[in-house]
Amino acid sequence: MNQLWKYYSETNPQALAINQLLVNSGETVVNDHIAFRTINDNRFGIDWIAQPFIDLGYQARGDYSFKQKKLRAKHYEHHEAQAPKIFISELLLQEFSPKLKNTLTQAFETIPKNQLKPAELLTLGRAWNPIQYQNYQTLLQESEYAAWLYCFGICPNHFTVSINHLNKYNQIEKLNQLVKESGFSLNQSGGEIKGTKTDLLQQSSTIAAKRMVSFSDGEQAIPYCYYEFALRHTDENNKLYQGFITQSADKLFESTDRQD
Ligand code: NI
To answer: Cα(116) to centroid of ligand 1, in Å?
Structure first.
């Protein structure tokens, strides 16, 4: 977990800055969940990403389907309450063009699976080189998620602050205000706050900051990772909800959309 945070925070100055902002105001930051993206090839699908977590005692808990974006996802929980949940999504390759399917399958096949430890795999980033900007643009026409994977490979896509564990910023509106006042933009797709108290989960996220990507035909700034915030509510049995809301997650995926 520390290695994952190290990789993510070092490559995402935006997330580190917001994390520091909270720490400097006396908060202890606990992660609600960490999210990964992959493809549904049987060698590189959700189960493959999940394995290192299963080895640590995580168990599969929820299944989610995103029809329009052609994705499915699962989430995993650990019996230790403070351990972050793991949310893994995968692109349903068979629902896309042969060009998209081949581009991503060939890229993933270059991952040196047998030479790396699980934690190294989860922070591998893009194992394939070179990549072409034209390919990126072609993928983008079919799926933003596919284009993102092509550029960035396997890495934590976002960490999520558990608002339930904050003291001063224990309301999502308050935390959003702090983030915006500090100069960061929030994803407005589907509204700034996704989900309601009745849904038992409210979430917001930053707009992914851009990262320079080296294509064979030059460098381009591409939206990379975002930082997410989640507030969970108790159900009628006074039990804190631990799942995810498909409709909200669908909009949160758009945090890596191009804004221009
Ligand atoms: Ni998330």
So the answer is: 26
How many CB atoms are closer than 10 A to CB 114? 5
For the chain, 260 residues long, the average pLDDT of each consecutive 10-residue run is 95 98 98 98 95 96 97 98 96 98 97 87 95 97 98 98 98 98 96 97 97 96 97 96 96 90
pTM given for the model? 0.97
CA–CA separation, 13 and 17 (whole Å)? 6
Identify whether the C-beta of residue 136 lies closer than 8 Å to the C-beta of residue 147: yes
Cβ atoms of 212 and 13 closer than 8 Å: no
Q: Among all chains, which residue has been given the structure tokens 């999210």?
A: 35
DSSP three-state, residue 153 = coil
Please tell me the distance between residue 216's alpha carbon and the centre of ligand 1 in angstroms.
32
Ligand 1 centroid from CA 80, angstroms = 19
